[in-house]
Amino acid sequence: MIPIKYLAIALDPIHIGTGGYRLGRVDNTVIRDFDNVPKIPGTALTGAIRSYAAMHFEGKRGCAGKDEPKDEKLRQCGEPDCPICVTFGFSKDTEARVSMVSFSDARILFFPVSTMIGPVWVTNPMRLNEFLKKEKYTDDGKIKAVNDPKLPDKRINLGWVLFEVDDGRLTLPDSQFVSLPSAIKNNIICVPNNIFPLIVNANLEVRTSVSIDPFTGAALEGALFTYEAIPRTTIFWFEAIYQDYAKFNGAKVNDYIKEIKKKSSSVNNAIDAAKAVVNVGLKHCKILGIGGMNTRGFGRLEIIKDFQGEAIC
Length: 313
Known about the structure:
The protein is of the alpha+beta class. The chain has 8 helices and 15 strands.
């Protein structure tokens, strides 16, 4: 098994809803992690990537989602050389196969916030340590910036709250963040762990929409609703664990690799083949988006860097 870590940027606001309405400031809220910070669930990533990859490979549209026994066109093929059924798994009648790739949730690493000196991107020690997979940063209760922001009285407003910035500097490893746009990399601020969720939730994008009467073309009375979204230029990270298909079906692995080589000539083994299928889906996320309200300017997500880790076994 090989882990690969991905760094991604939101090109549009992203809305992954909780499903249903709730009382409060916003009708449709986004899904959140244990610390009350919004995230993109791994299920949303897997579903979008699988669907877009199935569009790429000819004759595999039926393999994109749940098997539908009543409609032959929507049935998963379940073939041992299918780029979609092998890579993402399938369940058809009495047959089933586990996925060759497992996705984690996409967690916010850097979150954009408006300030008196322009936008900055906020993070915290816990999230930096999770991404780097080492306890490099400690939560000392201080707010530190990558560069000297030249603030009056060493204070900065993160949203509507004023904070004092420490004289110490935040140092980030170039090897991990060299692919970040300079406008983001040079304007990163690290805040205490307990402050980060408050800043994020106070600065989420909230939009208002209304249902339209199909007969009059006017707004329906009482059909106004609001919804949250993670703002564009938010930086996410997530991880994918790739398994070797040769260890599950060695007799058919060459057929699987050959099928994917028709679209990607750089494939040399089963793990390369699974990565090629996933990368096809990820590239389409930059165009077609992920989550809800894609037709309203939401959802586009672009991978800006991936890091391959050491083989687990």
